Amino acid sequence: MKSLGVIAQIVKTHLLSRKRQTVVASLGVTFGIGLYIAMAGFMNGSNKLTEDLMLSGTPHIHIYNDVRVDTQQVAQRVFTGKEQLVVVHNPKPQDKPKNIKDGMQILSFIKNDKRVYGASPRVTSQVLYNYGVSELPGTILGVDLLEENKLFALRDKITEGTLEKVLATDNGIMMGGGLADKMNVHVNDHVTVTLTSGTKITLTVCAIFRLGFAFVDNVQSYATVNTVQKLLHKDKLYITDINIKLNNLNDAKEYSKELQAQFGYTADDWETTNASVLVGIVLRNIITYTVSVAMLIVAGFGIYNIMTMMMYEKMKDIAILKAIGFDAYDIRRIFLGEALALGVIGGCVGLLMGLLLSLLLYSIPYKNEYLPGMEHLPMDFSMWYYIVGIVFALASSATAGWFPARKAAHVDPVIIIRG
Amino acid sequence: MPHVLHAEHINKYYHDPVTFQVLNDISLTINKGEFVSIVGKSGCGKSTLLYILSTMDTDYKGKLEINGELITGQQQNYLAHFRNQHIGFIFQFHFLLQEFTVLQNVMIPALKLGVHTPREIEQRAMEKLTLMGIADQANKPAKNLSGGQQQRAAIARALINNPTIIIGDEPTGNLDSENSIIVFDILHELTHTHGQSIIIVTHDSEFANRTDRIIEMHDGHIVSSHSTE
Ligand SMILES: Nc1ncnc2c1ncn2[C@@H]1O[C@H](COP(=O)(O)OP(=O)(O)OP(=O)(O)O)[C@@H](O)[C@H]1O
Ligand SMILES: [Mg+2]
C-alpha cells in the first residue's frame, strides 16, 4: 500500500480542481442525509408520542374474566365412546359470573411482586347517561382512583375539577371530556344514569378528563370502586378487571402468561391489546425508510453522474498514470476514493444539516388540547439516525463510484495517448 | 556487451478500417548504455513500435524481452509495475497531468514506486528540473507552461526513477536547437555515466547522427541499422 499517499494526493487535486462539480455532487448527498435525519427523527418522534400516549392509557397487563364458549361441550364429555360422533350445533356461553373471584386477594398478591409497579382493580357498569332529552350509552369505571392515578397519571388528564373532589363526594364521578361536551355538563352538575337493570340514579360530576382517545372520552366516566359496586348491587369484593403496570415494559409478555396459568383468568399484555396501534407505528417506520432510501438513491445517482463525467474528462490522466506505472487497481482506487470523498464531505455536511433541520422542526410550536405536555413538534434526536446516515452516505457513494471506477481501470492507455 | 532489450519477429496489424500490417517482422536488440535513434517517414510505424517496446501495447505477435525478463504475455498490472521501475517514456505530445504542478508531475512516478521518502523524491525532482532548466517553473500548474517547457518537464519525469531504458517519441520536437542540444547532452551523459539505454524516435537528422546507432524504418520494416561515427 505504498502508493496510497500518492493516490490520496491525486484524489485531492482532482476534487479541488473541479470545485463546482465537487460541491454539486456532495450537495446531493447532503440533502439526502439531512432530510433523512430530520424526517426519521420527526417520524419517530411522533411514533414515540403515539406510543407514549397509548402506553399511558393502557395497562401493561390486563386481567379479566373472558366469557367464552367452552371448547368441550358437556355432551362431548359424557359421550366419550370412539364410534360416536357428537356435534353440538351453535353452542352458547353459560351465564357465568363476569367477575374475578377472590379478585382483591389476587390484587394484593400481584402488588407484592417485585416486577409490578402498581395494580388497580376495576369494576365496570354499562349505563345510559340522561341529561335533559339526550340519552347516551356509555360506561362507568369503578377504580381505585389513587392507584389509577399512579398508573395512568389521571390527574394530568383532568381539565376541570379535582380527583379529591370525586373521592370526597358521594356518588361523584369524573366524566370524559367528549361526553361532557355532548351533554353540555360541567363540574358540580348532576347527571342521571339508567342502569341495565332499569333503575335510575343521580350522580354528581366532580371532574372532567380528556385522555385524547375519542372512544374513551366520548363514553366513559370514572368513579370509585364502591360507587360502581353499589350501582351494580354487588358486594365490596366484586371486581371484574385488574390492570397492572410493570417496572419493565418488556416483562409483560412473560408475566401475563404466568398470571394466566396461576389464576386461570385471561391476562393480556399491552402488545396484544394495542396490536393495531403497533401496526400503525410499523407502517410509518416503513414509509420513513422507503422515502429515505429513495432520497439516498437519488443522491447516489448524482455521484454516479459526476463520477462518470469525471472519468471521461480524466481519460488523459488515466492514460498517463497507467503509462508511468499505475496499475488498474490504483486507478480504481483513485476513482473510488473520489466518490467516497464526495460521500464523506456531503455526508458530514448532511449530518449538520439534519441536526439543524431537526432543531428547526423541534422549535415549531404545536399545541393540542389532548396533549397538555406538548409545546412543539415531536422530534427524536437519537444518535442512531446520524450513524445510519453517514454509513448510508458512504455505502451509496461507494456503490455509485464503483462502475465509473471500474471503467476507468480498464482504459487502454495506448488508444488515448496515440490521440 | 549485455543487451537490455531484445525484440524478435514483432508483427502488428490494425483492423480499422481494413486490416493492414503496421509492423512487419521487426527484430532488434538494444545494448546497455546504448543511445539509439529510430528514423523514418511519417506513418511508417515508429510510434506503434515504441508503444510495444514500452510494454504499453500488448496486442502484437512476436517476442519481447527487457532486462532479461520475458515481457510478452505478462499481465497488465505486472507490466504497469514494470514500467514504473524500468521504463521512462517521453510521449510524442508532451503529456503532463494538467492540474498538477510541474514538480508533482515529476514526483508522481517516484511516489508510486515508493522506494524513497517524499522529501528525497522532491529533492531529486528538483535536481531533474534544474537539469532541464525549468526549476523556476516547479510550482506552476503544468497547464500554464509553454509546449517546450512541458516537454522538458516530461523528460524530467521520465528520468526520475533512473529507468533502465528511456524511450522517447520525438522528445525534442518542440524545442529550439539550443534546448535540443542541451537535452541531447543530458541524455548522452546518462548513457555514459549511468549505463542507461535510450531509444529515441526523431525527425532531426542532426540529432540522429549524434546518437550511437540509427535504425531506419520504412512501411513497417526495419530497412537499416547502422552505427554512427
Ligand atoms: N488505432 C489505429 N487504427 C488504425 N490505424 C492506425 C491506428 N493508429 C495508427 N494507425 C496507422 O498506423 C500507421 C503507423 O502509425 P504510427 O503512429 O506508428 O506512425 P509514426 O511512424 O509514428 O508517424 P509520425 O512520424 O507521424 O508520428 C499509420 O499509417 C497510421 O495511420
Ligand atoms: Mg509517431
Q: Count of helical segments of chain B?
A: 7
Q: What quaternary form is this?
A: heterodimer
Written as H for each helix and E for each strand, in order along the chain, the element string of chain A is HHEHHEEHHEHEHEEHEHEHEHHHHHH
**Separate helix tally of chain A:** 17
Q: Characterize the biggest β-sheet of chain B.
A: 6 strands, mixed
Global shape of chain A: elongated
State the major sheet of chain A.
6 strands, mixed, barrel
Annotated CATH architecture of chain B: 3-Layer(aba) Sandwich
The helix fraction of chain A, in percent, is 55-70%
In percent, how helical is the residue content of chain B?
25-40%
SS strand fraction of chain B: 25-35%
Order of helices and strands of chain B: EEEHEEHEHHHEHEHEE
The coarse overall form of chain B would be globular
CATH class of chain B: Alpha Beta
**Sheet/helix structural class of chain B:** alpha/beta
Number of domains of chain A: 2
Structure in a nutshell:
The complex is a heterodimer of chains A (419) and B (229). Chain A is of the alpha+beta class and 419 residues long. Chain A folds into two domains: 4-56 and 277-418, no CATH class; 96-270, no CATH class.
